[in-house]
């Protein structure tokens, strides 16, 4: 009989836990996905990269929501059993409350292990993969670089300014400053391109410039000017300035532990400076310390087993 009761309680808890976790995750993920649209509109990444990057943040949302979801699911499960008078039936049948408490505690241990796996293994790996995805992603949408009366420096070493964008898709008075040998492949110095008009090619990979000149500054300070009536600039294959190095939360747990033990000093995010060590210890605490609160939350929620209705029935007797 006890096994059937435990199974029933576990199924009820699992139903609440799953529904709440996925509902909250859907809401938070939708809000984050809207914010991530900047990857397409501002940074020029492909829409496929945006979608994949957004989905890879779901484990991170799961990790943060599991403790809160466990609390709400425990409260709703116990409240539902109390509302349906099922708890009174169990006590009347001679089932000791400590057995239910032990069962809830065992469930909390399962959730705690799940939290450890998510926070210590799955979450860092997926976040690191998403960072690598952005690092290896190439610029796909040239129009995202051409913003009217704004200096666009999405690509490192490249600044683009457009004075006016016409309704037919053409641009007027374009300035392109190449400081990092991104477009013109200048051996040294910088290069500036000025054009009267411009438009984007049909494949959205090239910028066609009309009536302008290219000013190349050599290392000796000499400026060479080349005039043109029509030329094209290939903007495909460029990478944006999106942060490519993994953050501390994207570093594997093994590397963080080795960093604290001073075994791997050359790993990224591993520094002996006070601030870096503090960030590393804080990350370890988030991964290994926070899940410990789940069994504590379970014990606190067990106070709901002391039903008011149960006390009233005792008073009537």
Give an overview in words.
The protein has 317 residues and is of the alpha+beta class. The chain folds into two domains: 2-137 and 256-316, no CATH class; 143-234. It contains ten helices and six strands; from the N terminus they run H-H-H-H-H-H-E-E-E-E-E-E-H-H-H-H. The chain has helices at residues 2-35, 38-41, 47-55, 58-83, 86-92, 97-136, 253-260, 274-289, 293-301, 308-316, and strands spanning 151-152, 158-165, 171-178, 191-200, 206-217, 223-234. A six-stranded antiparallel sheet has the order 1-2-3-4-5-6, with no helix packed on it. Helix 1 (2-35) crosses helix 4 (58-83), helix 4 (58-83) packs antiparallel against helix 6 and helix 7 crosses helix 8 (274-289). The longest helix is centred in the middle third of the chain and has 40 residues, at 97-136. The protein is elongated, with a radius of gyration of 30 Å. The two termini are 28 Å apart. The relative contact order is 0.13. Residues 311-317 have low confidence and may be disordered.
List the helices and strands and how they pair.
Blueprint: H1 2-35, H2 38-41, H3 47-55, H4 58-83, H5 86-92, H6 97-136, E1 151-152, E2 158-165, E3 171-178, E4 191-200, E5 206-217, E6 223-234, H7 253-260, H8 274-289, H9 293-301, H10 308-316
Antiparallel strand pairs: 1-2, 2-3, 3-4, 4-5, 5-6
């Amino acid at each position: 009989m006890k096994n059937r009761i435990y199974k029933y309680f576990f199924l009820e808890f699992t139903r609440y836990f799953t529904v709440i976790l996925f509902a909250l995750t859907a809401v938070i993920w939708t809000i984050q996905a809207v914010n991530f649209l900047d990857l397409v509109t501002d940074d020029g990444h492909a829409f496929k990269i945006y979608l994949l990057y957004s989905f890879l943040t779901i484990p991170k949302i799961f990790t943060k929501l599991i403790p809160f979801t466990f609390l709400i699911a425990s409260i709703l499960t116990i409240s539902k059993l109390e509302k349906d008078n099922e708890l009174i039936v169990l006590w009347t049948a001679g089932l000791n409350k400590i057995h239910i408490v032990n069962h809830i505690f065992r469930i909390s241990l399962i959730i705690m292990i799940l939290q450890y796996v998510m926070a210590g293994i799955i979450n860092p790996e997926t976040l690191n993969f998403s960072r690598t995805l952005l690092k290896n992603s190439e610029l796909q949408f040239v129009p995202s670089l051409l913003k009217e009366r704004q200096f666009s420096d999405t690509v490192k070493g490249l600044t683009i300014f457009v004075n006016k964008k016409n309704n037919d898709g053409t641009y007027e008075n374009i300035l392109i400053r190449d400081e990092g040998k991104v477009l013109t492949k200048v051996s040294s110095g910088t290069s500036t391109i000025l054009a009267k008009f411009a438009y984007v090619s049909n494949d959205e990979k090239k910028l066609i410039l009309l009536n302008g000149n290219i000013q190349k500054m050599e290392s000796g300070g000499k400026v060479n000017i080349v005039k043109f009536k029509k030329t094209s600039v290939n903007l495909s294959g460029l990478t944006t300035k999106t942060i490519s190095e993994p953050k501390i939360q994207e570093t594997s747990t093994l590397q963080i532990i080795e960093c604290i033990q001073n075994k791997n000093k050359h790993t990224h995010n591993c520094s002996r400076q006070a601030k870096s060590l503090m960030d590393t210890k804080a990350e370890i605490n988030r991964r290994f310390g926070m899940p410990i609160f789940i069994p504590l939350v379970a014990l606190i929620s067990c106070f709901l087993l002391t039903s008011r209705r149960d006390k009233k029935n005792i008073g009537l007797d």
